[in-house]
Prior knowledge:
6-stranded mixed beta sheet; 15 strands; alpha/beta
Amino acid sequence: MTLNRGTKETGETKIGDDVLIMTGVHVAHDCIIGNNVILVNLVALGGHVEIDHWAILGGASNIHQFCKIGKHAMIAANSKIVQDIPPFILVGKHPAKYSGINSLGLTRRGFSDAEKSDIKKVYRYLFRSDLNQSDALERIRKEFQGSSNIEDILHFYDSSSRGII
């Protein structure tokens, strides 16, 4: 694998704890990788990519520079990612599309059925309803107050600079 140090502009590339980086992975300059991330064989990260905790990137996936991958997201093998991937979801196909929530991964990490149900409902509003994104986000803000998982999703959407898949 190749791991590039940070540039003078940003200063560092950060790799979290308990990260599995397999054969042939390329991590470009100024990347930030959270804890418990898995980068399967031949994953290539462009510069300034951010990957949050517990994300899994399937083999031979390519992540464009400045993209963000949310926590507990799982990306299918051979994916080409050019926009941000929100937390808790499965992404697959070509071009990369929402394929549901990462239910198995969330179960393995102790998420309750109620938590998974709320996450699924939120993404149903965002990806499978007739609501546009801003209307869906407004509805989610009103309906799901006080849930830290939903707050994580809302914060991710609010801070996205490349757009969401």
